[in-house]
Amino acid sequence: MARHHRAEAACDAQQRRRTLFDIDLRPPTQSARRRPLAHRRAPTSGSGINQVEYRRIGNDSTVRISPWRGDASTAQVVAVRGPAPDNATVLTLLELLGNRDVTTVLTAALSPDDQRPFTAAGFTPLEHLTLMHRPLQPEEPTPPSRSPHRLSRIGRRRLSDTLDADTDAFSSFSPFWRFDSAAYAEACEATDLSRQRCVRIDGRVVAYAIAGRSSTSGFVQRLAVRPGYESLGIGSALLADAISWLDRAGARDVWVNTQPDNDRARLLYQRHGFAERAGGLVVLRHDTVR
């Protein structure tokens, strides 16, 4: 019985590892679960990366390869199945992408251990992220939010307004953090269960959140509040709703990342029980000179 529990725990940890560091890259969002690998085989040469592709390479790692914000010469790569890429796998991946005329490669947000084979291949840091975590206690259900702000589903009708709110919210940060419709869709598909909620004032989306659960791990994948609407409790209401939903959905803990210099976001997460994890995460970049 003990052996069974250890195996189950190891499997759960591997799932959390794969999902955690795949979430929030744009902040990103990656999963192979909805599109079978056989249906998304990639071309073998030239043309860059024009759509999301899945490839099994190296040490039997399956990686998700996608164009970065529509640029076919820049690829985002994320391990979604199997073992984490090793040195040989990363070199094989770079060769494959080089043959496809890809000149820039970006990783997901990686832990210190997962960074090593990439840095050995010449990748350098692009963006540092603060990683935060809070446990959920089954015997102590998270109380529902008592906020006066009404939360609504986003849906297709409000997507454009939601992305406009996102642009405003992250306008003071580097372009890396900007979200587009493709990144939004990927975020919603990245986990087994997903929840999207927004707050509207005078018919306009002023804030929204995306939360997801895979296995027993929960993720706050995106939380954005338009400038001018902070300090009204809107972000807190969205975060409390996300945590409460994840608790009801069976998550045992919740993960989120943010910019190291985003003090307002860090304080918000701390008020809701999150604590920083040592080491954080780093997105790496590799440029090929031809």
Describe what you observe in this structure.
The longest helix has 19 residues. The protein has seven helices and twelve strands. The chain is α+β, with helices and mostly antiparallel strands. Strands 1, 2, 3, 4, 5, 6, 7, 8, 9, 10, 11 and 12 form a twelve-stranded mixed sheet that branches.
Q: List the total number of helices.
A: 7
Number of domains: 2
Straight-line distance between termini:
56 Å
Average pLDDT rating: 84
Largest sheet: 12 strands, mixed
Low-confidence spans: 1-42
CATH class of the largest domain: Alpha Beta
Layout of helices and strands:
Layout: H1 2-20, E1 53-57, E2 61-68, E3 71-81, H2 87-99, E4 104-110, H3 112-120, E5 124-135, E6 151-153, H4 159-169, H5 181-189, E7 193-201, E8 204-214, E9 217-225, H6 234-248, E10 253-258, H7 263-271, E11 275-276, E12 281-287
Parallel strand pairs: 3-4, 9-10
Antiparallel strand pairs: 1-2, 2-3, 4-12, 5-10, 5-11, 5-12, 6-7, 7-8, 8-9
Briefly characterize the structure.
This protein is of the alpha+beta class and 290 residues long.
Question: Top keywords for this entry?
Answer:
12-stranded mixed beta sheet, alpha+beta, single chain, 2 domains, Aminopeptidase, 7 helices, 290 residues
